[in-house]
Batch of 2 targets.
Target 1
Amino acid sequence: MNIQESNSVLIPKIKPVVEEIEKVDLVKVKPKFGIKAFMKNKKIYAFFFLVILLSFFITYFGLSFLNFYRKTIKVKNDVSTLKQSLIDQDLNKAEENLNILTASYQEFKSAYKPFRAFNKVPYFGYYFNDFEHLLNAGNYSLESGKILISTAKPYADIIGLNNSSQQKSEQTTQDRIDFVIKTIPDLIPKVDELSNKVSLISTELSGINPQKYPEKFKGFEIRTNIKNGLEILVSLDEMLKNAKPLLESAPYLLGVNDERTYMVLFQNDKELRPTGGFITAYSIAKVINGRFDPVLSSDIYNLDNNYKPKITAPDEIVKYIKGPYLLSKKWKLRDMNWSPDFSESMKIFSQESQTAGIPKVDGIIAVDTYVLVYLLDAIGPIQVPGYGEFSTKITPECNCPQVIYNLESFADIEGPIVWSENEPDKIVYAPENYDNRKKIIGPLMNSILSNALGQPADKMPLLFDAILRSFTEKHALFYFFDDKTQNAISSFGIGGTIKKEYSGDYLSIIDANLGGRKSNLYVTQEISQEIEVSNDGSVVKILNITYKNPEKYDGWLNSVLPNWVRIYVPKGSEILEVNGLEDRKDSYEEFDKTVFAGFFELRPQGISNVKVKYKLPFKVSDEYRLFIQKQPGTDMPLYQIKINGNEDEFFLKTDQEIISKIGK
């Protein structure tokens, strides 16, 4: 063996062995495509599809809701900012914030688009539809706001708003009135624009039924707020539509270019009569270019002394007032405001007063003591030469404003008025100061006018509010002989007319104090209506009128109140039951209404209740509508209305329409 051989590694040579692979026959297996298998797989596919679809919807609507929520918060904050600028009475800031709100509102509206799909969902779809209408109404509201701000800018100081772009001036109230008169033509097209927008808002919201919403949600009033909002909108829509004719008649009313002559009647609402109060005095005034100039004033009894009565007075006046009607049933001028429709009363009064020496006038304006109080609240105490100070400070002697107490003190003290047996129109004896009423009217009127018109411009908002309240609350009434002007006045609701055409329920309660001194100074009135709508749509009502006099008898201001009440309801109403009347008149028709009427007495510290149950002459289906007209001269009687279990309560400050959806 050599070295090479000893150092080598011998690797045995392995012969590859190829093992024979056993042949296996492959059997073809047929897939199971039977119905059961198919359905099983289909359910699995459907399940996964639904999971995916649901995940998509949850993700999509979740993100959409999150976006919508963010936009909602933004709009809410912008609304709060706008509201604050209005509270601050900053017109320019309000305009700026309104533009910001408009932009965020459009984003908010776009963010809602994904949820429109829910409009078709049963039950809940109703609320989504309502919200859609609400969104559209919101758009029109923002557009209305822009019109309103641009219209208000020139008159910012008059209505109590700050406008930094408006130059400060030392103008008086009369100067600003002159400015308003000059710019009236510019207001008319703006009012048209605003009226159109409000009509669109009203149309969008007209289908919303407050009864389908909960009364409260987390302590927040839902149903009441919706209901009140809809009622305000209806009133606003009607007011704007009627404002245009009034603005067009304004130059005539204010004596622009042509002088106007008016008779002003002073009605004492503390001795309530159908048109607002007993006529105590009158004045003749001239108006030229908005400047009011009293010419003369006198007591109504002085006018009656110059009048030769020839018309027979209404039976109720003759029966309960007695006094001058014991010997003659002829109607006195002072009692001619018997019709609750001011225009009807003034037609008679104006014709008859001309025979007593009243010159021809263009119109008649009636005001009561509330106008006086509102104006003095605005301008503060005034001095009347020869009569001292007049203010609205409450006087303990009568628990009433000092101006009311002073007027009654100057005009009358305790004691009877004795009429001549041979000359019915002649007073034989009257209390001390009886003649003072006609003496004080002129100086008081002049003092109020000179003080009001001489006020600095910053007092204009208060005066504007005083005048507006006097008009809307029916403490100032107007009657004009020019037909176009009279129609404009009546349409705007300051003519004291009875609403003759109305397709729904109607109610107006008219009281007349027939010799109860000044008891209405203390008397309050509460009215409740229980309205039951049957399944067939027929309507039965129970009307309760409660009168209260909490003060003691004093024989001067407060005494037994002999009250004649008239209740105006839809023509054809059927009376079912009446309680609380000592003397009742058969039902009759007037102004296309059915009238229930009667007499009762209310004593000091007493309560009287009149209850009337009656059936309406028509049926209702989806909607119940009620129009309530407030008697001129009254403060704000409390109304409570129950309709099929739903209750509403409010103070009636002006004529009001109630609209209630009837759930079937």
Target 2
Amino acid sequence: MQFSKYFHLENTVQTKPYQHIATLLCFFCLGFSTAAWAPLIPFAQQRLHLNHADFGGLLLCGGLGSMIAMPATGLIIQKLGCKAVIAMLLSVLLVVLPILTLAPSAQMMAIALFVFGSAAGGLGVAINLQAVIVEKNLSRNMMSSFHGMASLGGLLGVMFVTLLLALGCQPVLSAMVISGLMIALCCFAVPQSLNRTETGDQSVDSNVKNKKWTLPKPLILVFGVMCFIGFLSEGSAMDWSGIYLIDQFNIDHAYAGLAYTCFAIAMTIGRFAGQSIQRYLGEKNTIVYGALLAMTGLMTVVFSPIWIGALVGYLMMGLGCSNIVPLIFSQVGRQNVMPQATALSYVSTIAYSGVLVGPAMIGFCGEYFGLTKVFIAIAAMILLIPLLNAWIAKKASC
């Protein structure tokens, strides 16, 4: 198969020692810091005396910040390089996290959430670009393990903050502990990140180096749609799996979190095993079989007569979804129709809207049609991933 039309595979300069470790740590920090906020949310709602609807609208400020920051980050990276952007955004995250536990008014919380979301969204673009470059320089398929570190960071972030709160720590102290740990990780991760020259030389292919900021090409939009579906599936598990178990199986609220726990554990394991899976199946088949497994898992959730069966379905779904988005990001890094930084910022914006906007869409549709029908619709959307991937492969071989 020839990839000359849409993908470039040329060699690049050798990655410096520890840059791949630094990239792993950057992904870990992103997952760790953003997930650490989740257990602190109820305390913020209680402090501000807001109902669910008002506080839900407030949380959208974080999503709005991410959606605005991601397209701009690619352009900034081309000017400053990954290292400067990563250093700035990690600093913002570790400073703003404690502020989220102290904001005295809804207005201040809205500003803090907007800044926090902007930093998280921009950091996602920056570290994915760095991951693409490091992966290319090492000639190894490492994107799944990079995203696996974000998943691991998320799991540990939630567990660690929950433990601190259970031990009686105040929310602000818990947030400051998280920020302190991030400072220690940043002391190694930031100095080893790609500087402006390394980023600029490798993030822009010679065929597109002189192109200015443009609207996304059709190929980039297809990548974005595929990632959107992947993140929408993840968002459905994260925000609605517990509610689904309670509604359908009437289980105790204390056990509702097991659904997403199963999904998250399976996704983390699948991503760390991603390199081995890809070597065995190949990139195309890993995406195809992953999508089929995710679809089968979600249908198992829908049609299972017992809640244990639904947990098995979420295990299958997490494993199936685990490598889809990382491999698509790798493909975005190899395309040559747009500069990598610009392409990744567009794909990230479309993709992360699946997590930021998707759960709200699920709730709205679920109110009118029921979660069961919505989950079936998401399963049908997952089937679009192998079809779109086949279209990309066909175009690339022409």
